[in-house]
């Protein structure tokens, strides 16, 4: 009882706070929410003067305020955050913020502040505690920018994205000691002079994405944690060669023109290195070491400075022991230098898809113990070598993607150490599956007894007819065998070992044919998704009707109809989606189709493409023309007539026989009738 009382009072308390927005907070135009006011998109030409004086956050985006007039914010003394994006704002009058001593956030993105920037600058200078300023999308040049931010020494975050900045030097960011976040993406920056960021010694994140930077040399921003220079034209990235400690954790160099692996700071805290979509390669094979160096010429005033860099040798010198995420996909790597992974003792995600690798060797010293995700898809791999020393490699590997290569097999013992491997994609490789005799060879893949594996992709491998115990000792949940036209010519036998565990199975185009083999799915009790398309099934496998399938694909088979009762059992209860098109269904036997459509619970995903065969013409089953129905019903009586004609002689014979019997026993029968009537009739 006490409990009930407590819960009631709790409810009341909750209701009470729910009604906290008092009617006095109502405003005709704007939405008031505690100390926040939303007046977005109201065609306002000036700041409303009748808002609560205690307003702390004010959103006025998408209005029509060309000028922010003197003293318009005077009465909002405690205003902390003001947003005036997309207003066509040209001028902020010098006295606009007088009295706004608490303003810490000013968002004026997508306006025309370049028009009268010097006047606006005077206004900004009055904001003594401003921490965050968004000036993106205002057509500002670097000169305008430096005027606008000149005295904002309290600034911590500045966005100058989408402006017209072309070059940066040490005059542009002066006196911003607290600046931590600087966003310069989507400008036209093609040059950054040495010392450009000297005035912002506390900078932690710098975004220079989508500019025209051709190279970064002598990179020396030691305090920087995140550097984003993706989508530029960078061919070189060279950090200064000294033993300074760099705080750099994330470096995004993706979508550039990098020709070499970047020369990273020797001492760094790099965790994420993104190098996707570049032109990187290693050139150790093409020249000897004395030639793999480059000399850089620095012109500083009348001083010329020449420095020499060893191109990729240096890479092994930088300590990448914190690196967890390395993306080198979409480059032109032919090979990896010896001991490339040495020292990468934290690497968890490695993506080298879409390169030109032909072999991959993992040496004894490079244990890759922490690697979870290894993506080597879309290469030219013919061979993978893993040297299994006394210590165990690839211990943590969970996902291994080898899709689209030229592998025939994998190292024999590769899965004996990878105790956590769950997903393997070997699709589009000319692999062989090891037979019991072939196991132990590296010219085939041995999946059997890899207990941890759950998801296996073997699509388009041109597999031979599968043997019966290839999946022994595994408990696969997801198996893709599609596009191996010979794989299941002998039926479902090879899947017996995984029938109990499979949840998703694709046997599209695997040579299944009901005519040749018994297709018994009754053991696949966990199955929820089944793709049987592109086989030559002539009849619906009866055993499916007791499964709990959600999705069933029957496209491109030779089915003439589905059993009328298919949807009355378990299948009808669980099925969500079915694919049926490209089968020669008989237009005159579509009762199953009507039942299915009327069921309402099953989504026929390719409804409009389902056709049926009517005298060798294919007609859309979803709206059969009237004449087809007529022809069918015309055909149907035809059939009864036929049956009548066939039955006629039998009937005649029966009739004659009964007539003879009747005539022979006429007397007794008549007497019997008479006698019965006599007794029963009450005359
Ligand atoms: C706005 O205020 C500034 C300084 O408070 C003053 O110099 C300027 O003349 C004023 N402008 C207008 C249009 O009133
Ligand atoms: C710039 O601002 C001043 C002062 O508010 C104003 O008089 C002038 O008309 C503005 N110029 C433009 C081009 O908007
Ligand atoms: C770098 O900036 C681009 C453009 O804004 C963005 O798409 C990308 O996610 C950023 N990279 C990182 C590592 O945040
Ligand atoms: C490059 O050299 C290494 C060893 O020196 C060799 O294993 C590899 O096959 C070579 N790669 C190419 C593309 O020539
Ligand atoms: C290696 O470098 C030396 C000296 O620079 C040169 O004489 C030699 O031809 C080079 N060898 C190759 C294979 O390029
Ligand atoms: C060249 O550099 C020297 C010293 O570094 C300096 O005294 C001189 O003025 C410079 N000349 C020019 C033309 O800049
Ligand atoms: C030239 O390079 C040397 C050594 O790297 C360095 O000490 C010196 O400051 C550089 N001079 C200029 C003008 O960059
Ligand atoms: C790399 O740095 C880590 C952490 O600072 C250190 O423990 C390790 O010894 C370094 N490795 C090398 C090869 O210098
Ligand atoms: C690897 O990169 C490719 C292409 O950029 C991407 O499609 C794929 O999802 C990545 N793989 C992993 C495991 O992140
Ligand atoms: C495996 O490879 C196939 C064939 O290219 C692809 O369709 C599928 O998405 C891949 N699966 C995973 C999990 O990478
Ligand atoms: C379509 O039906 C006709 C008989 O109406 C039959 O002869 C023909 O083989 C059927 N076509 C297909 C593809 O099954
Ligand atoms: C079906 O009916 C149409 C029009 O009534 C006729 O042209 C066609 O020959 C008929 N087809 C069959 C198989 O009876």
UniProtKB/TrEMBL annotation:
Top-level taxon in the UniProt lineage: Eukaryota
Coiled coil spans: none
Organism listed in the record: Pogona vitticeps (central bearded dragon)
Residues passing through the membrane, by range: 641-665
Pfam family, one: LRR_8
UniProt signal peptide: 1-20
Gene3D superfamilies according to UniProt: Ribonuclease Inhibitor
Keywords: Leucine-rich repeat, Membrane, Repeat, Signal, Transmembrane, Transmembrane helix
SMART domains: LRR_TYP
Protein name: Transforming growth factor beta activator LRRC33 isoform X1
